[in-house]
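User: Sequence recovery, please. Input:
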């Protein structure tokens, strides 16, 4: 780093007020130095000229410029390197400068840059006041125009101008909008009076109020009326525009016919942190050059032109989607997503919002509406043609949107815009079309309309609307990230950009409300099902040999106080009523709410093929009487003993089982008014039996609170419970 000073003054230490002037070429050096000296003189400060070069010594023109007389101390800092913006920012931080003076020749930046790839980062990140000068600075300016709305910074700006150019006439300008009428002009005069009332007496001001259709037109028209300099303060910059100073100052800087200063005040720490975070987010996206922008623009605009291919392709995709939904085939549905051309039209709406092109936006909207009608009608027709169409898992999946679907659609919009803008990743566009379901929800809505399931059809259409709005919003934001925007100074298109993004944001918030409600309901239902599964598994495990096969929760009664549960058990022997009743009570205790349990039992016997059966025991032989021994004559006479006869035991007597008389079940019918079946005598109502129903009396009568109750079973309804005897009529049985 090299320091040079002029021949009259030596700067040994930093003065309280330091102005940095960034100079790169001879053409703008003198003008910027004069401006910096005027700024420093008004604050009794000094100037430091910063230049970035690969040479070891400053250029001869800079040395000669420094040798001239100046009203304030001037020093030069020579920085070596290629990244000019980084070196300038480092010098600002090191020197603790109050003001940075930059020059701009009026050439728009390329890609995402507004003023240039050097000026943009410096202006955005500089931790000091920034003054940008366009055209040559008029040292002997006689008339200076300063537009104002009467804010608190206006008097300070006028005083600063007076210290810079004490001989100049300063004209604070208020632009009254024509459509607001004469009252707006009166307000303007009052605001300008508030600006000039407290100024020092030596400040020469000539407040002026003019009428115009918009502030930009009024300022540019007045600037052409013999002024030497125009000074504009940078207001709150529009984040969505990515303009450096905000809409109005940025446009004035591009279109002003006279030398112009745009002043951006030092940002607060919080605002500076927000800006840095936003810039880091934008820097995450790679730059798109002008050629890539042109290619992407042409590609998107081709996708919004109506032709026969669009209608035919979308019709075929809707047929694919509808058949895939009926067949419960995800593979067919994915094929329909890849064929459908809806994504191009929707992405076209996002791009034309960013570019502020209403004609192409409406063309894309018409194409999208035509696609919606084609897909819904196709699903409706196929639903009428296919006989006995049933609701499948895929139909249900495309009828229950949630916040997760919104997240998928937002991500898909960003990815689609990026894929269109970057030719090396354009192959990802088909994958994005699969991720964001567009045609299947529309076909599903038409299919469900043919089934007269309006509740599910509404869910399917809500899923499409969610995807539509989210893709437009995130696609537009992605295009902004990549550098697409209206031409600087085109206020009409800029207004359309604001209105379009505001409308999309409002719709996005609007669609989030029902999605939040549906997501909450789905979460509650999922938790309930998990609790039911846990309770049933735990309690069925306490039944010897029982296994839980499946269970169903009555969806219509899921939000009621009593849960209607139908379960199927595999059991070695049929459960007794007391066991079923205990199971019901234990499940209700675990869930902490009443439960009505209906049990289907499947008898089962377990046979282990790998274990041989035990041997069948053979009964011992029954003893029988032996025949008497036959005497054999021997030569020698020997007496023989006659065996005793064997005594045969009498046969055992087999007891005869006498059947015990069993009471025949008592049958009764329900009276003419019908009958409520309750969980217990006087308890919760389970169901209603119509008049004429036949029931079997299992227990009773039981008297509870002066009412007669019977424990009954309805074979037709597979229902067991307690009923009032007042509404039962006896049935004569043979």
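Assistant: Recovered sequence (734 residues):
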């Amino acid at each position: 780093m090299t320091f040079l000073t002029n021949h009259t003054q030596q700067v040994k230490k930093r003065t309280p007020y330091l102005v940095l002037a960034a100079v790169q070429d001879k053409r703008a050096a003198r003008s910027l130095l004069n401006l910096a000296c005027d700024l420093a003189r008004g604050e009794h400060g000094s100037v430091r000229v910063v230049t970035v070069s690969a040479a070891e010594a400053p250029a001869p023109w800079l040395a000669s410029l420094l040798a001239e007389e100046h009203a304030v101390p001037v020093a030069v800092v020579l920085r070596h390197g290629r990244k000019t913006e980084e070196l300038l920012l480092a010098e600002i931080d090191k020197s603790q400068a109050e003001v940075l003076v930059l020059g701009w020749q009026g050439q728009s930046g390329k890609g995402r840059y507004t003023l240039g790839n050097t000026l943009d980062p410096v202006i955005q990140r500089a931790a000091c006041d920034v003054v940008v000068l366009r055209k040559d600075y008029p040292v002997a300016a006689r008339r200076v125009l300063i537009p104002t709305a009467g804010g608190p910074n206006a008097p300070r700006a006028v005083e600063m101008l007076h210290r810079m150019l004490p001989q100049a006439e300063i004209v604070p300008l208020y632009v009254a909008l024509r459509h607001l009428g004469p009252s707006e002009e009166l307000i303007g005069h009052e605001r300008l009076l508030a600006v000039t009332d407290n100024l020092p007496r030596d400040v020469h001001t000539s407040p002026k109020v003019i009428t115009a259709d918009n502030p930009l037109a009024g300022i540019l028209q007045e600037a052409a009326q013999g002024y030497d300099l125009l000074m504009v303060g940078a207001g709150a910059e529009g984040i969505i525009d990515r303009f450096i100073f905000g809409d109005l100052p940025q446009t004035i800087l591009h279109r002003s016919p006279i030398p112009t200063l745009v002043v951006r005040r030092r940002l607060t720490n919080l605002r500076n942190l927000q800006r840095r975070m936003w810039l880091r987010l934008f820097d995450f996206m790679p730059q798109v050059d002008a050629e890539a922008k042109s290619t992407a623009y042409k590609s998107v605009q081709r996708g919004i032109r109506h032709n026969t291919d669009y209608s035919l392709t979308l019709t075929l995709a809707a047929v694919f989607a509808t058949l895939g939904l009926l067949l419960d085939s995800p593979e067919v549905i994915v094929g329909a997503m890849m064929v459908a051309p809806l994504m191009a039209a929707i992405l076209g709406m996002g791009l034309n919002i960013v570019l502020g092109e209403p004609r192409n936006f409406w063309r894309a909207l018409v194409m999208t509406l035509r696609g919606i009608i084609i897909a819904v009608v196709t699903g409706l027709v196929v639903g009428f043609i296919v006989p006995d169409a049933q609701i499948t898992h895929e139909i249900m999946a495309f009828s229950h949107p949630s916040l997760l679907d919104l997240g998928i659609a937002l991500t898909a919009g960003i990815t689609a815009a990026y894929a269109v803008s970057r030719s090396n990743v354009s192959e990802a566009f088909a994958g994005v079309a699969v991720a964001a379901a567009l045609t299947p929800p529309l076909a599903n809505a038409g299919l469900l309309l043919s089934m007269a399931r309006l509740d599910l059809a509404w869910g399917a259409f809500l899923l499409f609307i969610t995807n539509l709005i989210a893709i437009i919003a995130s696609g537009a934001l992605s295009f902004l990230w990549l550098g697409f925007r209206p031409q600087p100074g085109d206020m009409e298109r800029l207004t359309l950009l604001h209105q379009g993004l505001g409308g999309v944001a409002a719709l996005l918030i609007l669609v989030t409300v029902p999605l939040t409600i549906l997501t909450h309901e789905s979460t509650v239902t999922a938790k309930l099902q998990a609790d039911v599964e846990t309770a049933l598994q735990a309690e069925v495990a306490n039944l010897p040999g029982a296994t839980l096969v499946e269970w169903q929760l009555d969806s219509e009664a899921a939000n009621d106080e009593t849960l209607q549960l139908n379960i199927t058990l595999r059991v070695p022997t049929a459960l007794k009523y007391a066991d079923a009743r205990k199971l019901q009570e234990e499940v209700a205790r675990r869930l902490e709410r009443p439960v009505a349990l209906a049990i289907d039992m499947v008898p089962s016997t377990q046979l282990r093929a790998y274990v041989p059966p035990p041997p069948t025991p053979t009964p011992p032989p029954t003893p029988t009487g032996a025949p008497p021994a036959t005497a054999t004559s021997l030569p020698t006479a020997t007496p023989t003993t006659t065996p005793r006869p064997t005594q045969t035991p009498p046969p055992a007597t087999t007891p005869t089982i006498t059947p015990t008389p069993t009471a025949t079940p008592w049958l009764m019918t329900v009276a003419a008014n019908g009958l409520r079946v309750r969980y217990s005598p006087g308890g919760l109502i389970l169901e209603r039996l119509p008049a004429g129903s036949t029931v079997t009396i299992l227990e009773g009568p039981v008297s509870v609170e002066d009412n007669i109750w019977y424990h009954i079973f309805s074979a037709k309804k597979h229902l067991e419970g307690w009923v009032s005897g007042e509404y039962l009529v006896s049935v004569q049985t043979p």
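Residues 54 and 82 are 8 Å apart (CA to CA).
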